[in-house]
Amino acid sequence: MRLEKSLVTVGGLTSVSRLFGLLREMLMSYFLGASVIADAFIVAFKFPNFFRRFFAEGAFNAAFVPEFAGVLASHGKEQAKDVANQVFSWLTLVLFIFVVLVVIFTPTIIHIIAPGFCDTPDRLAYAIEFTRITFPYILFISLAALLSGVLNSLDRFVAAAATPVLLNIFMIAALLLAVDQPGFALCVGVISAGVVQFIWLYYSAAKQGFNLRLQRPTLSPSVSKILTLMVPGAIGAGVMQINIFVDMMLASTLPTGSLAFLYYADRLNQLPLSVFGVAIGTVLLPNLSKALRLNNQKDAVTLQEKAMSLGLRLSIPSAFGLVLLANPIINLIYGRGSFTNEHVLATAPALAAFAIGLPAYILSKIFTTGFFAKQNTKTPLKIGMITVAVNLILNLLLIGPLLHVGMALATGMAAWVQAGLLAWKLREKSMISLSREFYKDLFYVVLASVCMGALVYSLQVSVNFPSSFIKSVVYVFGLVGIGVTTFGGVYKACLFVSYNHKKQAS
C-alpha cells in the first residue's frame, strides 16, 4: 500500500473530524466564553483525554501495533486474534479499576491537577462534578484505540479515522440541546460518544473477523512484551501531552479564563497537527513495523524520509499561516457571543506561540514512530524526560512576564528540543539517511513559505479586519487562499527550475 494513498484517506477523514471539532469549539466559545464553567469543563475534558492520548493512542499503539502487525505478518490471522483478545481482556480489567478509583478520589485529584481552583470554589465544585461524569470515557475510548490498532494493521484505515467525528457530533448536539446547563450537557455528550465510538469500532473489527471476546487475562509472551513496552512508551509517546498537562496545572493558578485561552488556541493548533502528523504516524507505524519484521531496512529508511518530506511540506507553511493570521482567525472563529474582543486578544498570541512548534510536533510524531516500529521505547522515554524538564523550566521562566502565552511558547520550544534529540538518535541507529533531494525540497518549502508570509503580512497590514461576519469570512479565507496560491506557485516554480537544470546537466 502506498504511503500517500493511505495518508490521503486518514488525513481526509481526520479533516472532516476537525471541521466538526471546529464547529464544536465555536459553539463552546459562544455559550461558555472564558468563564468559570469553561475552565471547569476544560479540566474535566482534558483529564480523560490526557490518558487517552498518553496511554491509549500513544503508548498503547506504540506497543500493541508493532507486536500485532508482526504476529499477523509472520504467524497469520488466528494467532494475531489471540493476542488481540488477551490484550482486550487486560485493558478492560485494568481500566475499569482505574476509572472506579478516579471517580472515588476525584476531589483529591482535582486539587492536584488544578491547584489554582482551590482559590475559586465555584470552579473547584464544577470541575469535580464534571470530571466524575466524563472520566469513564477513558475506558471506552481506550478499547476503541485497541480496535483501531487492529484495523490499521489490517490496512483498514477508514473506520478508525472516521471515529472522532462521533465525539464532535455528540458534543455539538449537547450544546444545541442544552437549555441552561451547557457544561453538564457537554459532559453527558462526552461519555455518550465514548460508548458509541466503541460500538462502532467493535462492529467494524468484527466484520474483518476480529470479534474480540473477554476472557480470563493471562500473561502470554506477547502480552508481557506489550506491557513492558508500554511503560516507557507512555512517556516517550506522550511528551507533548505531558507538557500540555503541566501547562494546565500552572494555568489554573492564573486569572480565570487562562485555561480557556490555552484550550481554544491549542484546538486550532491541533487542526493541522492532527490532519498531517497523526495521519502520517497512523499510516507509518504498521508499514514500518512490517518492513522491519521482514528485515527490509532499505524500505524502512525510505518510508521515514518520505514521511518527513510530506510532514514538513505541509507543516511549515501551516505554521507560517497560523503565526501571521492568528488574530483574524481567532476573531472569525471565536469572536462572538460570550467570547469578547478581550478574549480574542488574549487567545491569538497563544495560538501563534503554539504554532511555532508545529513542524517539530509532526517530526517528533514521525521520529517516535520509527523507534516504536523497532519496538524501542527506551530511547523516546529518555528524550521525553529531557523534554518535559525543558518545558517545565521554560514555563517557570516565561509564565511571569508572558502569563499563559509564555506557557504556549514553552511548549512550542520544547517540541523543537524533542525533535532534534530524536533525529540525532535515529541517525545514530541508521534509521534516517536523508538524500540530497530531501534537503533541496526542504529549501524550496522554506523559501515558498517565506514568500507566502511576506505577501500575507503585507496585505493584512494594508487592510483592516472588517466588522461584519460575512466580510470577515471573505477577509480570512481570501488571505488564506492568497497564501496557499503563493506557496504553491513559488514551490512549483522551484521544482520546475530544478527539473530544467537537472535536464540540461544530463
Give structural notes:
The chain has two domains: 3-434, no CATH class; 435-506. The chain is 85% helix and 0% strand. It contains 20 helices and no strands. α12 (258-293) packs antiparallel against α13, α13 (297-324) packs parallel to α19 and α14 (326-334) packs across α15 (341-355). The chain is globular.
Largest sheet: none
Which of globular, elongated, flat, extended, rod-shaped describes the shape?
globular
Residues in helices, as a percent range: over 70%
Mean pLDDT: 84
Over the alpha carbons, how many angstroms does the gyration radius reach? 23 Å
- Report the count of strand segments: 0
Total number of helices: 20
Termini separation: 33 Å
Q: What string gives the helices and strands in order?
A: HHHHHHHHHHHHHHHHHHHH
How much β-strand is present in the residues? under 5%
* Unreliable residue runs: none
Secondary-structure content class: mainly alpha
**Total number of distinct structural domains:** 2
Task: Produce the secondary structure layout.
Layout: H1 3-32, H2 36-75, H3 77-104, H4 106-113, H5 121-134, H6 137-153, H7 158-162, H8 164-177, H9 182-207, H10 221-237, H11 239-251, H12 258-293, H13 297-324, H14 326-334, H15 341-355, H16 358-373, H17 378-402, H18 404-428, H19 436-462, H20 469-505
Helix pairs in contact: 1-8, 1-12, 2-3, 2-5, 2-6, 2-9, 2-10, 2-11, 2-12, 3-6, 4-5, 5-9, 6-9, 8-9, 10-17, 11-17, 11-18, 12-13, 12-15, 12-16, 13-15, 13-16, 13-19, 14-15, 15-18, 16-18, 17-18, 19-20
